[in-house]
């Protein structure tokens, strides 16, 4: 099982920096099905090729759990193409060996990951259900030129005809991280099977690897069905997750239900989104914050309000979705800003649950309608990212109050306000979480209502304002 990635860019040997693998050494890694080896058949300044060879352990494969699909019957466990043909096993090896490169990080040469390089990818034995046409349909919309030759069953016996395997060569000018993520998703899609049991974890992997390209891919539905082993419930979940991450429209994300609570609503209807932004801005001003990070900024609705207020001297939007950041850049009109204005506003692609030194040292971090989109087991990682590593003087968190949902007549009982919400907290649950976080990381916390504070079910949005104990202005 084998693939190669070749760069013909000037200083082509920089491919070693991007992959975090030295061209002068052969490196080996244990994976669940065997051993993965990385080596460089050629490494010059004009042309550099990195090869990934996966040696499958057939005994480990047979003993593995969750064997299914076309290899699920007894004889096929021993007589199959898995040691030789690219499949989900090779995708797993890619994710294991090139994880940092797939995330677009290069600490030694931080300018390299953003560069589009002339790349050539070769996969000499790729099983493809649907043949060369399907390979072109999934790779060409991503900017690749595709050469796909059918491999004969046996070159010595022509009348046996073609096999289901392709010798695929992809060429294009793309970022290396993009290329690796394309391969990670599409290799098992073309094979149309996986060597392991597909669970909800696969949706997270797909959303992460497909950020910025999968939502708008013309073959998105085909890719989702095959990647998720045709499991309808997982496909539906993935569609919702991708819509939230890549097709960012704040009206459909933050305000999935109508606003308005009866006689107490002012005559001039102010949407809940406007009230929420106003509450956040007022809180930041009261805290004396001038340098602010909007974590999970989406398409930049709050960023625009921050950038329009001269009180805030530096504002940075952070989101995992490249697509959302592109929309934010357009809506902020970055290209029309003066150089002085542009210096105040920054956009960063990063995960909410991974430490990132670029967001450390700011006065305030805002998580506006963000935490409810995070799977509960990952909340601890989010807390460490914000309160332990970034450690701003002020943290502002807003989230829906699930008790208030009964005031929305168009929202069926038991349904959350948005399809991608992982949970919605009651006031007691939010208080419990906020107080535990504050105690754990050396902060004090105040809880405030946003919107009309219903005497029975509370406000539609609840807000927590955390203040670091040693921050300026803290009462302690």
UniProtKB/TrEMBL annotation:
Gene3D superfamilies: Hen1, N-terminal domain, Vaccinia Virus protein VP39. The keyword RNA-binding applies. It catalyses: small RNA 3'-end nucleotide + S-adenosyl-L-methionine = small RNA 3'-end 2'-O-methylnucleotide + S-adenosyl-L-homocysteine + H(+). Its cofactor is Mg(2+). It is an enzyme of class 2 (transferase). Belongs to the methyltransferase superfamily. HEN1 family. It holds the Pfam family Methyltransf_23. Signal peptide: none annotated. GO terms for molecular function: metal ion binding; RNA binding; small RNA 2'-O-methyltransferase activity. Its EC number is 2.1.1.386. Keywords: Magnesium, Metal-binding, Methyltransferase, RNA-binding, RNA-mediated gene silencing, S-adenosyl-L-methionine, Transferase. GO terms for biological process: regulatory ncRNA-mediated gene silencing; RNA methylation. This is Small RNA 2'-O-methyltransferase. Residues 1-243 form the Hen1 N-terminal domain.
């Amino acid at each position: 099982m084998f693939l190669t990635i070749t760069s013909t860019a000037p200083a082509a040997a920089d491919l070693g920096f991007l992959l975090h693998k030295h061209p002068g050494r052969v490196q080996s890694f244990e994976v669940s099905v065997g051993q993965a080896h990385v080596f460089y058949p050629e490494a010059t300044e004009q042309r550099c090729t990195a090869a990934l060879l996966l040696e499958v352990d057939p005994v480990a494969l047979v003993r593995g759990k969750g064997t299914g699909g076309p290899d699920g019957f007894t004889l096929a466990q021993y007589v199959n193409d898995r040691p030789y043909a690219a499949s989900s096993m090779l995708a797993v090896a890619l994710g294991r060996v090139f994880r940092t490169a797939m995330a677009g990080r290069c600490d030694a040469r931080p300018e390299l990951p953003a560069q589009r390089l002339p790349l050539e990818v070769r996969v000499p034995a790729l099983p493809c259900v649907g043949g060369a046409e399907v390979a072109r349909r999934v790779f060409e919309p991503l900017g690749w030129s595709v050469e796909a030759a059918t491999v004969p069953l046996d070159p010595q016996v022509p009348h046996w005809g073609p096999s289901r395997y392709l010798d695929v060569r992809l060429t294009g000018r793309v970022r290396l991280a993009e290329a690796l993520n394309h391969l990670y998703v599409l290799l098992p899609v073309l094979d149309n099977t996986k060597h392991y049991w597909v669970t909800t974890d696969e949706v997270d992997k797909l959303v992460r690897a497909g950020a910025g390209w999968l939502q708008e891919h013309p073959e998105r539905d085909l890719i989702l069905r095959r990647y998720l082993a045709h499991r309808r419930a997982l496909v539906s979940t993935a569609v919702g997750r991708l819509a939230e991450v890549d097709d960012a429209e704040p009206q459909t994300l933050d305000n999935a239900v109508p606003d308005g609570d009866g006689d107490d609503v002012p005559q001039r209807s102010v949407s809940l989104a406007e009230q929420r932004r106003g509450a956040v801005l007022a809180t930041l001003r009261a805290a004396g914050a001038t340098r602010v990070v909007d974590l999970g900024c989406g398409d930049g609705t709050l960023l625009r309000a921050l950038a329009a207020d001269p009180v805030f001297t530096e504002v940075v939007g952070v989101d995992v979705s490249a697509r959302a950041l592109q929309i934010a850049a357009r809506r902020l009109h970055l290209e029309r800003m003066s150089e002085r204005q542009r210096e105040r506003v920054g956009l960063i692609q990063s995960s909410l649950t991974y430490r990132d030194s670029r967001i450390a040292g700011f006065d305030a971090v805002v998580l506006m309608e963000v935490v409810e989109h995070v799977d509960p087991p990952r909340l601890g990682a989010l807390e460490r990212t914000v309160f332990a590593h970034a450690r701003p003087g002020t943290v502002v968190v807003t989230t829906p109050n699930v008790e208030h949902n009964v005031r929305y007549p168009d929202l069926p009982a038991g349904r959350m306000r948005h399809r991608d919400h992982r949970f919605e907290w009651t006031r007691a649950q939010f208080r419990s979480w906020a107080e535990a976080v504050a105690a754990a990381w050396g902060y004090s916390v105040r809880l405030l209502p946003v919107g009309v504070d219903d005497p029975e079910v509370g406000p539609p949005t609840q807000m927590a304002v955390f203040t670091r104990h040693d921050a300026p202005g803290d009462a302690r």
